[in-house]
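Give me structure tokens for this 251-residue protein.
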Amino acid sequence: MKASHKTNLVLVHGWGMNTAVWRSLATSLNDEFELSLIQLPGHGNANEVAGGIEDWADYCLQQAPERAIWCGWSLGGQIALHIAAHHAARLSALFMLASTPRFVAEQNWHCAMPAHTFEAFVKAVTKDIESTLVRFLSLQVRGSEGAAQVLKQLRKDMRQQALPTQQALNDGLLLLNSLDLRAELSQLSCPVQWLLGERDSLIPACIAEALQENHSQNHIDMIPTAGHAPFLSHPQRVAAALQQFCRESHA
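Here you go.
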């Protein structure tokens, strides 16, 4: 029997997590897509990779099919955006899930995490990895619909695989602090969809206006009662949006 052709879809998780976080969403997508769940360096049981964004991107590309639609959450979205700009042949469309081109606020970019809050994480992660990750997860669900249940699921997913290594967390924080991919957005030739949470405490909702002002070709959607993990708080809404985007992009 001839196997049916499925569209390749890559999912890239965020800082401090692992591929287990995609379990629920993957169940909704398995029938339609050939899924590749990318493990970030030093997360789960993945090897560490010394270096910056290009090294992390190369590591992710080694796990991915030759060409696919990429969906990245948070830091995973930033890595996917870098790949879209610098390895365009490998990516046919980009779905940015609760992600941003610039994670930390600066003078001309206010729709981001305050620098002092980010610096507190940098200091805390060197003392106790698990407690810092749990605190980070708590921030992700703050204000979200069903916050307690989403936090419970995130904690469970975090412990499904090995915790990230100290080096991986440090390197990931360095990327989150230093990456500024706003210029890369103007280089993209592929379709781009942003799906954001209006109650996201890490990536403020005002980013939607900033993205639209500077990059009018972006399509931006907002889930009013979602926080930083909309694929857990609003799984059906996220799955439907991703399926529609992939179908339109692949047509």
